[in-house]
Write a structure and sequence with these properties.
about 20% helix; four-stranded antiparallel β-sheet; 6 strands
Length: about 120
């Protein structure tokens, strides 16, 4: 098994309304972008009752493609801002990424991007 991977995908699940906290924490720790989308929880603790009607809480999923060397620092920052012990009730984990296509910037120096070349 090759452990010399270059990238990880950090996946964070939080209660709806807390994605901005995750994105900001990840950015401060070195992440250079995030993708946010909506989901609904279906776990045993997710089902709530309101006047005997089941309600499935809405969630936000945040994806961060990061350099492997930064993964632990970024996850720690995310958990500090929106972890399980916070109101956001966040869960964050990473998955190894073996291949990446379409990364248009250098993770080490964003100032080198030629904006005209992207158009």
């Amino acid at each position: 098994m090759n452990t010399d991977r270059e990238y990880d995908l950090i996946i964070t699940v939080v209660n709806r309304g807390f994605a901005d906290q995750v994105v900001e924490a990840a950015r401060k720790a070195g992440a250079q972008g995030s993708t946010v989308f909506y989901a609904r929880g279906t776990g045993i603790h997710e089902l709530e009752k309101f006047f005997s009607i089941s309600i499935q809480p809405e969630k936000e999923i945040i994806l961060n493609l990061v350099k492997h060397s930064s993964t632990k620092t970024i996850i720690h920052s995310i958990i500090e801002a929106a972890g399980l012990s916070t109101e956001g009730k966040g869960l964050s984990f990473s998955l190894p990424v073996s291949d990446v296509a379409g990364v248009i910037h250098n993770f080490n120096d964003l100032d080198e991007i030629d904006e005209d070349a992207l158009e």
